[in-house]
Amino acid sequence: MANPKIPTAKTAVTNWGAFKEAGLSPIDITCEGYLPIHQFNSGCHSKLALTAEAMISHLDREHGGGFVMTLRKSNGPVWDGWDKFIELGIEITDFRCDVCDEVIKLNPSFILRHFAPHSGKMRRPKAGGTFNITISRQVNPEYTDAD
To answer: Which of 6, 12, 33 is nearest to 91 (CA)?
Structure first.
């Protein structure tokens, strides 16, 4: 008897497709909590392998779900981790620019705006492309990523 195909979980609100549409792939991921979302940083401060599984493993081991992720436009195929997050039902509960601390809507144009050097938390402009992201297996009703 053949095994029936197990249905894959889908995300309820997170638009992971925005990262794919923007052609983005991570070049650095660190397990790190950040203010104001993580009042206590339970991240282990480790640099992770560039896989969705590495991030999910840290989430499931109660590291807080916070990460600092540096993204770049891909010249080749886009990172397959975005699809993995959709398949496993992983949600974003917070996504913000590390430079200016602005909460970013999950839309390609909003994300790409933060790749240019700009100022924010500090007066001097800093290169963009680094983001603070918190993932969870649950939806945060306060976080909206609508267009």
So the answer is: 12
